[in-house]
Amino acid sequence: GEGLQGQSLPFYKNFFAGGVNSVRGYDTASLGPVEVTNPDTRLGGTRKAVFNAEVLFALPGLDKAFRIGPFVDAGNVFTDNNAVPSYTFSKEGLRYSAGIAAAWISPLGPLKFSYGQPINEQSNDKIQKFQFQLGTTF
Q1: What are phi and psi of 81, to 5 degrees?
Q2: Each residue's pLDDT tens digit, 76-123
Q3: 3-state secondary structure (DSSP) of residue 13
Q4: Which CATH architecture describes the domain 4-120+128-134?
């Protein structure tokens, strides 16, 4: 991205995707541009596109604080840096996943569990099918 007066932003200000709050089924912050000499190093991107759809239902006979249902996610991060041409925005660059999620408003706070199956994973994607979250995100 660009800061004031066209200056580049530091890498830690980049967007990241993957994980329980973006594209479930992929490891946290694992999607998007990678270091050319070290593909395990994620650089993040200057643009982020994420879509989440989830429907949670209370199960008959159980506490209404527990809900379960399906989800689908799509997303990735992209860059406008021509040095990483395979990560300029395109719908083909999006990663997709689908799965099942469960949420429980526990006495300790909200808990969320998900099991996501990547639909179009690539060879360098890091997969994490089971994920959980304690607390609320803002």
Answers
A1: -80, 115
A2: 998 876 555 556 666 778 999 999 999 998 888 899 999 999 999 988
A3: helix
A4: Beta Barrel (2.40)
